[in-house]
Fold Flagellar motor switch protein FliM.
Amino acid sequence: MAGDILSQNEIDALLSAISTGEMSAEEIRKEEQEKKIKVYDFKRALRFSKDQIRSITRIHDNFARLLTTFFSAQLRTLVQINVASVDQIPYEEFIRSVPKMTILNVYEVPPLDGKILMEINPNIAYAMMDRVMGGHGSSMSKVENLTEIETKIMSNMFEKAFDSLREAWASIAEIDPILTDFEVNPQFLQVISPNETVVVISLNTVVGETSGMINICLPHVVLEPIMPNLSVKHWMQSNKKESIPEEVIQLEKRIKKAELVISASLGTSMVAVEEFLMLDVGDVLELNHRFDEPVEILIGDQPKFTGQPGKVGKKLAIQIIDELKGGEDDDE
C-alpha cells in the first residue's frame, strides 16, 4: 500500500482540523501533490540500476582482493585495498573531484569500445614506487616533476596490476586491458563527453603506513554492450557453472605426462599343458590371427587401436590404422 498508514489518533486530528477550519481540504490536496513531485537533474542521469551497481560492486570487491595480493607480493609490505564506494556521476564531476596533480592511467579494454581511467592518489603512488626502488615506502609530493625513469616504473607497475581486472571481469566479459596513456593533469584528459555518465569505484588503499584512494572510472559507453551481464539473472546462471578446482587441473596435467605401455597383439594360440612343457627353441606355434588382417594395439591391457606391422629401417614397427571405440571407458 503506497504512503504511510495513519493511526486513529492522527485521523481524528486531521478531521478535527478540517472541521474547525484550521486546515482546508484544498491545503491537504496541495500537500499531497507537492509530495509526489521529485526533483530530477538531467545532468546526473541515472543510467545504471541499483541491481547493476550491486553487480559492479561485487566484481570490484574481487578486484580489490586481487590487487591486495598483487601489490603485497610486488612491494613486500602490508597492503590493504577494499571498495569504499561505488557511484554514478557525470564525467565532468569526476574530473573536478580528483586533485589537479595526480597519477592518471588510461586503459583500453578490447573488445569493448572506449577507455577507462585509473586515478591513484600521489601519496599512494610514491609510496609504492619508493618500495619498488628499495626504500621504506615513504611518500613525496612532486607529481609535476616526474622523471622519465619514475614515469616508466609507475607505468609498468600499474599496467601489470590492471591485468587483475581481466580475472575480475571474467564472469561478465573477456577483456584485454592495455595501458595507452599516462597523465598527471586531469585537465589534459578528455576521454568522453563531460555530461556522459560514469561509474566511479573508489578503493580505500593502505600501503605500509601510507593511506589514500584509488579511483576507477568506467564510462557508460564502455559498459553498455555488457549491461545485460550485470543483472542478477546472469549472475545466478553463472554461479550454476561449476568451476574446476586447481587440484583437478594439476592432476590432469600430471596424468597427461604419465608414461603408458603400448603393445601389439599378433594373435593367440591354445595348447595343452603337456605340449607347452615340451616347447623348445625353433618350435612353431599356429596363431588364431591371419597375417593379412590388422592387429590390435593395446594401451596397458586395453585394446585402443588397430594397426599393420612392418619395419622402419632395421627396427620392427606398427602403423596405426584406426581407433577402436566402444565400452564404458571411452570418452564420448
